[in-house]
Fold this sequence. Notes:
Low-confidence stretches: 1-8
Number of helices: 5
Oligomer: single chain
Amino acid sequence: MTIVWRFLTGAPPSLSAAGPRDAPAIARLHGQSFGRGWGEDEVYRLLIDRAVIAHRAMSRRTLVGFIMSRLAADEAEILSVAIAPARRGRGLSRPLLDHHLRSLAGLGARAVFLEVDEHNAPACRLYEGAGFHQAGRRQGYYADGATALVLRRDLV
């Protein structure tokens, strides 16, 4: 059955570092995933910032996911995570997140923070399963007035 599944779905996406050439694809995916998507120039500026670490998930030559963080001293903040709509719910986000967290730890990050909409159940499950815990709440953080949960995970 595994061989049939791989034939029908293709090989699992490859995970690798994202760079400035990925800016157009990341901007498109971000726009598909969030109410206010990042523009290509905005993504490009992030990707050339030495403090920003980004990884991508590629299926053949197509970007199907990305994650981006900013390092500051021994802490990191996850800026954004997105999975292509057609690939959501297929178990891609956890390997991408784990790969990214290992890279951050290897760069000296001891703790990682992020904000997530408290009503985004799939994302909350992902982060809880990856060892994040609530460190705070930001009432009205999002443009629609939704509350953000501030999550933290220690890497050491």
